[in-house]
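Write out structure tokens for SET domain-containing protein.
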Amino acid sequence: MYVSGYKAPIYFLIVSSTREDAHRRTGDRKAYVFDLDVHETGSDDEDDGRRYSVDSYRAGNWSRFINHSCEPNLQIFPVIWDTIPELNQPYLAFVATGAILARSELTIDYEPGAALEFKRSKGKGKARVPDG
């Protein structure tokens, strides 16, 4: 079930990285940045000029307040319906992973790939802490 879309201004990745770094340096942990890198792979090192991020720090909808959980009840999917796919600017849709009870907190996994790394490293008893 579709819950919400992530609404925020789009920035070139270099600009959003600078913004996120500035938030960290000043101790302001209110960064709400999502990279729109859905067409990239782990081996993509070249900058093809089509790397963007969305940052809802100053403008965005309620979905920027969705918190992290290692057992999230929402998943994020890139959706393209009125943009050119090659521009790499999909909408981000929050979709429920199952039934969500009333008054439950809505959560996502900030770093879903980190769970695989954690399992591979055979960590014992330590919780994952997301970057950012």
